Amino acid sequence: MAGLSDTRGVDADGTDGPVRVDDPSYLVGVPDEFQRLWTPHRMVYIQQGDPGHEGCPFCVAPTLSDEDALIVTRGKYAYALLNLFPYNSGHLLVCPYRHIALYDDATPEEVAEIGSITQTAMRVIREVSRNDGFNIGMNQGSVAGAGIAAHLHQHIVPRWAQDANFFPIIARTKALPQLLGEVRTALADAWPKSDD
Predict the structure, then answer these.
(1) Residues 21 and 49 in one domain
(2) Count of domains in the chain?
(3) Do 30 and 45 belong together in one domain?
(4) Rounded to whole angstroms, how far apart are CA atoms 10 and 17?
(5) Phi-psi region of 138 (alpha: psi -120 to 50; beta: other; left: phi over 0)
(6) Cα–Cα distance for residue pair 184/66, rounded to 1 Å
(7) 93: phi > 0 → left, psi -120 to 50 → alpha, else beta; which?
(8) Which tens digits make up the pLDDT trace of 69-95?
(9) What are phi and psi of 31, to 5 degrees?
């Protein structure tokens, strides 16, 4: 059986020779054939577990700063924040502050503000991202695909003509070109300022 240093490979000086796999510092900076997808926003789940199990994330989010909760805008009855697990860059969720599960539980004021925020979000996302279209919708109940069925939320997903590639189809992976904090800042900066 070969020893740890007997594995063949290219030495740091470019010559063919044994690679020291027993010494991880030997491989620092050595390029390999792998591509990396960086998802630093997932560290909260690694370090703290899924915060959704400790309470409703859509009730907790408004108690945090906009930056920490990824909130783009706050209205009187509803607010918009980035989806922590976006289908595409700029994927927003519009939620009422009240903890209600179904659309028909919402008051006329909540429905109106959810609609108004949705329209403004479409304009802002189009201005910032130059997308070609949108998927907009609500999954009502777990059986309909709602990840957080207990708190009403509407998805606004920007779509581009070329956004479907082999990643989601083959590897069930989405490649996102911007970090969530960068997307939140871009959308919040472009959001129209109210006169209030």
Answers:
(1) no
(2) 2
(3) no
(4) 6
(5) beta
(6) 9
(7) beta
(8) 999 999 999 999 999 888 888 999 999
(9) -65, 150
> What is the secondary structure of 89-149 as a DSSP string?
TT-EEEEESS---SGGGS-HHHHHHHHHHHHHHHHHHHHHH--SEEEEE---SGGGT-SST
Q: Are 103 and 152 in contact (CB under 8 A)?
A: yes
Q: Tell me which of 91, 99, 151, 153 is the catalytic residue.
A: 153
Within-domain flag for 133 = yes
How many Å apart are CA 119 and CA 136, to the nearest integer?
Answer: 11
pTM of the model: 0.65
Whole-number percent of the chain with pLDDT over 70:
64
Nearest to 121 by CA among 99, 153, 162: 153
Based on the residue annotation, tell me whether 153 is a catalytic residue of this protein: yes
Residues in the chain, overall count: 196
177 neighbors 120 (Cβ within 8 angstroms) = no
**Shared-domain flag, residues 21 and 109:** no
Q: Which of 90, 110, 108, 91 is nearest to 152 (CA)?
A: 110
Q: Which domain holds residue 16?
A: 1-34
